Amino acid sequence: MDRQSLYQKLMTSGERDLVKEQLRAQLAECGWRDQVRAKIREAIERDGIDKVSVESLVHQIVPAAQELVPDRVRQDLCQRVQAALGPAAGGAK
């Protein structure tokens, strides 16, 4: 099953929204959102508010934000998605 089909299965089952909400809650609980906000503030202070664009912030912050996601949150997300998809998730990457 290809990636699009897996995504479609999550959407039609309603699991996508549940997984998304659980992920948001876990990220807030572990302080990830606060850490990302701090990175944004650092970038603005370093570069100056007049010289920072949304695009430059996204380019700087997204990789850092991805690295800040705790391993336990990543593992839990993978398990939830696999459980929601059942055997169809077998070889998807």
TrEMBL record:
Q: Name one GO molecular function term.
A: transcription coactivator activity
Q: Choose one Gene Ontology CC annotation of this protein and give it.
A: nucleoplasm
- Membrane-spanning residues: none
Q: Which InterPro entries match?
A: TF_ENY2 (IPR018783), TF_EnY2_sf (IPR038212)
Q: Does the keyword Chloroplast apply?
A: no
| Subcellular localization, as worded in the UniProt entry | Nucleus, Nucleoplasm; Cytoplasm, P-body
Tell me the subunit arrangement: Component of the nuclear pore complex (NPC)-associated TREX-2 complex (transcription and export complex 2), composed of at least SUS1, SAC3, THP1, SEM1, and CDC31. TREX-2 contains 2 SUS1 chains. The TREX-2 complex interacts with the nucleoporin NUP1. Component of the 1.8 MDa SAGA transcription coactivator-HAT complex. SAGA is built of 5 distinct domains with specialized functions. Within the SAGA complex, SUS1, SGF11, SGF73 and UBP8 form an additional subcomplex of SAGA called the DUB module (deubiquitination module). Interacts directly with THP1, SAC3, SGF11, and with the RNA polymerase II.
Q: Which family does it belong to?
A: Belongs to the ENY2 family.
Q: What does this protein do?
A: Involved in mRNA export coupled transcription activation by association with both the TREX-2 and the SAGA complexes. At the promoters, SAGA is required for recruitment of the basal transcription machinery. It influences RNA polymerase II transcriptional activity through different activities such as TBP interaction and promoter selectivity, interaction with transcription activators, and chromatin modification through histone acetylation and deubiquitination.
Name of this protein: Transcription and mRNA export factor SUS1
